[in-house]
Amino acid sequence: MTNSSKKTLDKIEKEKIAPKPKWQFRLEQVGLWSLAVVSVIIGSNAVAAIIFRMVNNDWDTLKFLQRSPIGHALTTLPYVWIVVLGLFVLLAYYNTRHTKKGYKYNTYGVVIGAVLASVIVGTVIYSVGFAPRVDRFMESVPGMEKLMHSREEIWMHPEKGFVAGEIQQILGGVGIFSIEDLEGQYWVVRPGEDYRIHPAVIIMEGEYVRIIGMPEDTETFVADQIMPWQFGFAPNGAIHFQSKPNFRRMK
């Protein structure tokens, strides 16, 4: 008997190490695989939220914001969700590696598999319209709202030509209506000379819109462009406007 074998036997005898019961081993395996699956599911929700935030990232207003696409992306990337995705991909990898045959799996294969699974499932979650709820849930976590980019800040500057709000009433005249903006102020919106309205916008009470233009006075806003507040991904793959968007009043 070699010295290493003797030391091992002495340790087993001294510490009274006994083999685990089969049921306990199986339970641990089920637990590890379950945690790996849960990690992928949470990562998938992070992917759905990332897609949602990038789609609704005001790309159509860059020329008015005077930002480059790269600069805008770096400023508004959903870093919190990216970190969440990374953490849960690593957790899925850790749990998979600790399963019965986990040591046989290639490290890169496990990580890439977890990422691909998260992307595929996350796209499905986004396509069925669940992503806004996921994003709202994260924002409701205490302290998390401060870490997440708030697109509302862009649309709280009527003096610079940016207003967003909920349509309150359709008034007389073509394209004239009133809105309540993010700070609770009411505006009468009328079309300007270069008036354009996005095809997805329906001017009706309860709809949420973004407006680019200039204030005429303290109560009237002259609109050059009207766009939906939020886009979504329909199950058939078509981009559509969601009538119940993520919309935070800042008053």
Question: Would you write up a description of this structure?
Answer:
- This protein is an alpha+beta fold and 251 residues long.
- It has two domains: 3-147, no CATH class; 151-241, Nucleic acid-binding proteins (OB fold (Dihydrolipoamide Acetyltransferase, E2P)).
- Helices cover 43% and strands 20% of the residues.
- The chain contains seven helices and eight strands.
- The chain has helices at residues 3-15, 22-55, 62-65, 69-76, 79-97, 107-127, 131-140, and strands at 156-157, 162-170, 177-181, 186-197, 208-215, 220-228, 231-233, 239-241.
- The chain has a five-stranded mixed barrel with strand order 2-3-4-6-5. The chain has a two-stranded antiparallel sheet with strand order 7-8.
- A hairpin with a 4-residue loop joins strand 5 (208-215) and strand 6.
- The longest helix has 34 residues, at 22-55.
- It is elongated.
- The termini are far apart.
- Residues 234-244 have low confidence and may be disordered.
Please tell me how large the radius of gyration is: 26 Å
Distance between the termini: 79 Å
Task: Give the helix/strand class.
Answer: alpha+beta
Could you give the count of β-strands?
8
Strand order of the largest sheet: 2-3-4-6-5
Largest sheet data = 5 strands, mixed, barrel
Number of helices: 7
Percentage of residues in helical conformation: 40-55%
